[in-house]
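Hi C.,

You asked whether I'd gotten around to modeling the 270-residue construct. I have! Everything is below, sequence then structure, no commentary in between.
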Amino acid sequence: MRRSYWQSGAMICHAAVVSVLSIFPGALLAGSASTPEHARTIHVFVALCDNEHQGIVPVPKELGQGDDPARNLYWGAMYGVKTFLRKSRDWTLVKIEKNSSVEVLERIVFKHKTASAYLVADAYRGDQIKRAVADFLGAAAGNNSGILKLENESLGLQGAADLVVYVGHNGLMDFNVESPVPQKEAKPREAIVLACKSRPYFQPHLVPVRSKPVLLTTGFMAPEAYTLEAAVAGWLAKETAEKIQERAARAYDKHQKCGLQAARRLFYCQ
């Protein structure tokens, strides 16, 4: 926690097309224009590291100030979500919003450089970790759907996102939250939880609401952004859960030097 992401008949068809185009050059283009691909959205809920209000092993003071996103371990520090993704080859920062709510000190929006996808991350005050966990679980159940208008795109937030992610301290070790009750017509989301021992604590809340856990953890870990980046890359590529798990393990071992086998055991896919 201290260190502390597709022939003959074809010829006839061809001739017919050429004939049509000779008369109406724009006919084929106008009639066959495909619907633009829906931009997928990853909504990340980050509970800022907080020495005072969370049951963690204390980190250096400047990293553990839950009301200071700029230097926080899980946000502004070297491997924090904001700083790490800003340096990523795959993502471009397109928006920063300060104090988007009472609980959220900063919201950042990244656009993927090659895939049709956006990542929206919210930095929750450290003392609002319970709200961050509850909001994440509600989103995983498909509740509280929201829309963010950006660059001619309508990005799904909360229960309208395509993938929801929680990053930070496993607050369920310290407090209880009620499992969400899916709202009418809610569609459960796929979910990732990057926190210590997230499988035994979060899975019991995710399974009843039919949220599919893409990646969980089995032991203590540093919930830093290189794992987030790696897992999301696999998810965007529509890889199997096993391949996403392998990506996460390799990224984690690269930065933590814990051994690949140990890193593989750390991550769980359903």
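If it helps when you're writing up: The helical segments are 8-23, 27-32, 81-86, 129-140, 198-206, 225-236, 241-256, 260-266.

Thanks,
B.
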